[in-house]
Amino acid sequence: MSSYCINVLPDERTIIAKENEYILDSTIRNGVKIKVGCKGGGCGICKIQILEGKVDRGHSARSVLSVNEIEEGYALACQTKPNSDVVIKY
């Protein structure tokens, strides 16, 4: 079973994501307080920025995550799974 380190800014904490675990679930399990809404990719409340690393962004509505935001590294924590160690900012 693989796991990945998630370096969380601005908290400057490192947490572990289990294999195939959404970033939101990893942060909740480790006590990081990312804002949460629908958990389905439709509201955009859990928007984070991926500063380093590779992720699978999953599904998100274009109304909450634009192409420009994706190009700038933004993703929804409820739909995003790390594929490497990552650095995120929320």
| Termini separation | 27 Å
What proportion strand? 25-35%
Largest sheet: 5 strands, mixed
**H/E element string?**
EEHEEHEEE
Rg result:
12 Å
How many discrete structural domains?
A: 1
Number of strands: 7
What fold name goes in the CATH topology slot? Ubiquitin-like (UB roll)
CATH class: Alpha Beta
Q: Report the mean per-residue pLDDT as an integer.
A: 96
Low-confidence stretches: none
What's the short story on this structure?
By secondary structure, this protein is an alpha+beta fold. The protein has two helices and seven strands; from the N terminus they run ββαββαβββ.
Provide a descriptive summary of the structure in words:
There is one protein chain. The protein is globular. By secondary structure, it is of the alpha+beta class. Strands 2-1-7-3-5 form a 5-stranded mixed beta sheet. A two-stranded antiparallel sheet has the order 4-6. Strand 1 and strand 2 form a beta hairpin. It is 13% helix and 33% strand. The protein has a single domain (3-89), classed as Ubiquitin-like (UB roll), CATH 3.10.20. The chain has helices at 23-29, 67-71; strands at 3-9, 13-18, 47-52, 55-56, 74-76, 81-82, 86-89. The longest helix has 7 residues, at 23-29. The mean pLDDT is 96. The termini are far apart.
Layout of helices and strands:
Blueprint: E1 3-9, E2 13-18, H1 23-29, E3 47-52, E4 55-56, H2 67-71, E5 74-76, E6 81-82, E7 86-89
Parallel strand pairs: 1-7
Antiparallel strand pairs: 1-2, 3-5, 3-7, 4-6
